[in-house]
Amino acid sequence: MRYSKLLFFLVFLIGCGESERFASYDNNDEVKGFFQTRNKEVLVNLQEMKVELSKKISEPEDSDKIEDLERDQLNNERRLKSPEFFTYAAMEDLPKNLLWKEGMDQPEIGSPLAKKGGIFNTYLPSLAFPPTIRSIGKNANNGFRSEHWDNIEMALVSLHPNTMETIPGLADRWAIGEDGRTVYFRINEMATWSDGRPVTVDDFFMTFYVCLSEYITGPWYRQYYGTMFENITRYNDKYLSVRLANKKPRPEYYASLTPYSRYFYREFGPDFEERYNWRARPTTGAYQILDEDVVKGRSITLTRVKDWWAKDSKYNRYRYNVDKIKYRLVRSDEKVFEFFKKGEIDMFHLGVPKRWYEQMEIPAVFNGYIQKKSFYNVYPRVPRGLYINHSKRFLNDVNIRIGLQHASNWQKVIDIDLRGDAARLNVYNDGYGKFSNNKIIAREFSPEKARAAFAKSGFTKQGNDGVLQNEEGERLSFTITHTSSPVVNKMLQRLKEEALNAGLEYRLEGMDGTAGYQKVMQKKHDITFWGWGTNPPFPRYFEGIHSSNAYDPGTKTPRVMTNNISVYSNPSADPLAQGIRFATSEEQIQKMSWDLEQILHDTAFWIPAYKREFYRLGHWRWMYWPDDFNVKLTREAQESYVYWIDVEEKEKTLRARSDNKSYPEVDSIYDQYRIK
């Protein structure tokens, strides 16, 4: 006991030291200067573009592109009439004929039976302690980011998780301008940060300052915020407008910014990555990280914001029910499972068939202490598979990549290791309805076709170990980097064994989540077993496919810390990946998505693995859910925050277990959203 207290005290002292070693400063002047400089830069760029476009139109290199050039010229002329990125206006400058929407006609989310209070005990994703709690900058895109940022922080508006209609967030009303690209928002008067400060338009201006900053090492933010938006205007503290670079379907969704606290980021500067690495930020959402919530190497806790401003709002009052969410560091999935069976962890995902079918045959289930649930969700499927580093020798050869696809027996993994509780994934954007190209079928396992493809690249000789070689004696051998776990290790071992039938050697490199993430983001891997998060309603490709995220400009050096982990650079794919970002209609998105998926298939961009239409979990009976269990559009059980912990029921259950009393066994299937 004395040792634990001493350890905590040392961790506390270290944390204090980190905050104290940075001199305080205020970037107010720098921020103001940035807004002015940005406006000047935009004007200069537009003027230079005007000259360039006029020259290209008068002396076209390709007559087929005249129409595109003329369209760009018209757009450039439009922007030159109002070139400023950051503008300040008065309330009387607001258009008078705006049709304001409030989005209050959708059904409530969660259950009125939900109880507030208690602690939800869970474990850190990726079984690794995050390298930072920053939401931006180096290493910020880690497994814990969604838990404390993406799923918590509020934007101006959001989408209802059952109907996909727009509902209020920080804004309590919005309107779309006549141009179809400018969206007007009114910030809810009640909206506050967890530190008590009101949310104002200045916080949204700060979003652009931070995300467009040269201090951000990852290029995605500058790309997105610099190309998707044309203007943000302040009318007063609560009214703003956001103008998109292009007309979009559902413009309010695309214009829905997430604020960055002007006060918190007043020290944002060249050293921000280190300065803010473990500095807990204020939040507009239901949960925050307090300084004492971070016990490095052991746990991170989210604490519900006291008197959260949105706690009584229509779409939130039955959600975010627990007082605390404690993420415990456990280094292995097996240990997590053991903690779960003891009742030290409240819920455990049971996607591994062995766990569902065999390891849950335990007294705690038979006696009703642990309940089993299966839930069919409707959500874009995780693009899970083997991502090939196209910058590596041999892997930049399409014939080799096609051979890899034919040599990877994912169907056998599905049939045996997953016991048929999954289906083969065919496309990168599966589960987006009409936007998913359902005509594409993933290449089947065929050693014969694999060898034929390898032969086209000179790998025709088979060594004594069964691995193909070329004329120079180089072996057909690649390393798969992956997060080590018993399940993943077993699946990839099967792929390795099957691949040898095609003369291919897969070397397996199991790593912990943090180390594996670092290697992949540095683009030092050959192949990695990976799965990206998805987000409805529209597929996104630019970050993971566009060549601007593949190599450093003008070089063949892979660009690190971008989501293009395949280092994929294809002139045929780029216009489509870019076009989807700027599409003005759902029809355009559908057409370009289908065309792009065909290109990805033809070039053997990756090796798609498997998908599930449901998830399975076990939870202790003191953890409750609504009658229909969960929302329609959810990736995982907990991210909708409709669950609650009944503290009294927990005490009762623990007493019953101690007294050998039982409850009815529960094994429920919720298939109301199952795709028939």
Helix content: 25-40%
Distance between the termini: 56 Å
CATH superfamily of the domain at 384-611: Dipeptide-binding Protein, Domain 3
Count every beta strand, where a strand is a DSSP E run of 2 or more residues. Answer: 27
Sequence of strands across the biggest β-sheet: 1-7-8-6-5
CATH architecture of the domain at 384-611: Roll
Largest sheet: 5 strands, mixed
Mean pLDDT: 93
CATH class of the domain at 384-611: Alpha Beta
- What name does CATH use for the topology of the domain at 384-611? Dipeptide-binding Protein, domain 3
Stretches where pLDDT is under 50 for at least 5 consecutive residues are: 1-19
What percent strand?
Answer: 15-25%
- Secondary-structure class: alpha+beta
